[in-house]
Amino acid sequence: MRTPAGAAQPQAPVDGVSASRRRPTIRDVAVAAGVSTATVSKVFRGGYRLRPETEQRVRDAATALDFSPNPYAQSLHGSRTGTVGLIASDIDGRFSLPVMMGAEDAFGIEQLSVFLCDARGDTIREQHHLRKLLARRVDGIIVVGSETNARETLGADIPVPVVYAYAPSLHPSDVSVVPDNVAGGRLAADHLLGLGFTEIGYLSGDGSYEAAQDRVRGAREVLRKAGTDILGAEALFGPWSEEWGRAGARRLLQRHPQMDALLCGSDHIARGTLDALREDGLRVPGDIAVMGHDNWELLAAQSRPPLSTIDNNLETLGRRAAELLTSAIDGDPQPGVHRVSPLLVPRASTLGGS
Amino acid sequence: MRTPAGAAQPQAPVDGVSASRRRPTIRDVAVAAGVSTATVSKVFRGGYRLRPETEQRVRDAATALDFSPNPYAQSLHGSRTGTVGLIASDIDGRFSLPVMMGAEDAFGIEQLSVFLCDARGDTIREQHHLRKLLARRVDGIIVVGSETNARETLGADIPVPVVYAYAPSLHPSDVSVVPDNVAGGRLAADHLLGLGFTEIGYLSGDGSYEAAQDRVRGAREVLRKAGTDILGAEALFGPWSEEWGRAGARRLLQRHPQMDALLCGSDHIARGTLDALREDGLRVPGDIAVMGHDNWELLAAQSRPPLSTIDNNLETLGRRAAELLTSAIDGDPQPGVHRVSPLLVPRASTLGGS
DNA sequence: GAAACCTAGGAAAATGTTTACCCGAATGTA
DNA sequence: TACATTCGGGTAAACATTTTCCTAGGTTTC
Lengths: 354, 354
Description:
Two copies of one chain form a homodimer. By secondary structure, chain A is of the alpha/beta class.
């Protein structure tokens, strides 16, 4: 809060030497280095032939004055602004935050800055932010959804590229990036098979979520290829809650007493499952192994035992979204739904150990 | 991803009518409305005397052309850019995300746009983003910490106002906003006393966190005022984990068999406590009531029973940070540490019921 | 009816860079 | 020596606004 830069502090008289607190311009640098403004500009933009000593003089003057080019003047001239918009629609940010961070990270390398907007899942607000971002002249927009079900396109005549992250757009010519839930299901089933488990049940979340169906599908695919199947040939669907994890686990165990491993549709469900099994006197993974999905550290790392799970790799997803956006900005859009592979996070609930 | 705006699509010949895809400028509006650019500007900025019919003509022309003023040209002229920077340092975003959302919300009303940066708790990265934001000519900066312990100031000669949210600055002339943990402790203790509980234990988190100490202090203050005290006259400190919740609860119960309520330093700890109590055959809140702190929905709402807790009101904190920043930008900084009151979230772990 | 005063709106400078174009000097070639 | 090239760097016109005058005409006022 030093130097509030407002009208409060006494404006030092404009005394040639340091004109009050005015930021140095390219002209100041030019004068200090004894060259023209064009030369200074050329030094900073690069790609011009200049005598090395001239360039050095300019650079020295610039550092001495703590000069950095005014992006507003730059963008006024050129057609790029070096900014992108990020519209998040996640109340709790469980999903959108890692995506945002990944994107921010990738854009940082590209020298792009990110405008953050929060639409709270509200279409009106989303349109408002869209207009606001366009008025700001962003070069592109990323829309981060809060669930994996496909969503309506943001608009048909948006003058800049748009990338949909997490929730894909329904429009096939849009660019979308989503977690590969089928691969996640495969990864989980592979892990269990590799450890020698064979009687595998699946306790899923809400079947109206594509994510739930995809995870089951991936798991079933691997199991069938191995000559077996999900116990009872299909998954049990229910709400995304711990309570369903407890109830569902007991129901599955009753139907299939031989079950030696249980795949869960989310960490919440797995957490409930672990509680129920422990209360019923079963050891995990000794009597039965358990896997979750999502890798919510808060739940998974502190459960008893710590939960093996699938990480959706959302930060990579964000990074990929950023890459796709910059690619589109550079005139090379890659329409379609891109899938990001998840990661296996093995912990004690399948491996045993402490 | 329509109209990539890049070099890909054939540039329509500049045909007077609609010069390709060039955004309309104030000049286009002026021509269409039959006035000068100055007049258009005056209409949009307001505060000038214009004949109503002239104003209407300009507005009609602007909407017809879908004109919005170029903020880069505006900021080039004026001294404000209408942008602020938000430096987050939270890996998981449990704390910084709600703050960001609150700030974004409050700035939205002020017509300010937010640049998001992620420092990942790394000072180098933080300085990098600081420079980047200053180069972008932001009007101010909010730094969101990841824990409540005070932190070093961002820099001594930053030319724009800075507000520290969640983690206060050590420098007294900086502006900081933090959750009022003492008030949170008071709120929790009040709640329990009001429900008739009298033998109250306190199971805290890591004592090196100011937040932990403050919460205990607030609770003790209320209890002493009511003529009693924390059982054993002091809180039990330990790691912020469920395991500590289980172990600590058992230890406290052994020392103080008469305990009828247990305050916990976090929802994690409370969650562990609930598990231990249930496993030991105690009913909550029949035999003993439990309260958490932080209101992490993921944990608190799904525990058995749902957990009464204290919400840090982080979104309000973010909003307050935004207000303090705009105030400082407007030349009226309010140095010091501002505290935001938390909220009581009563659930079944103290109230009973289903 | 003339002087003073509004009133609505225009002309143009200013904001900080970029870049197309230009020019003088040095260098190379015939 | 005469001419063409290259090299290094300067000139000035954009870029889209805002804002400070300025002015032409209309309205008061005495």
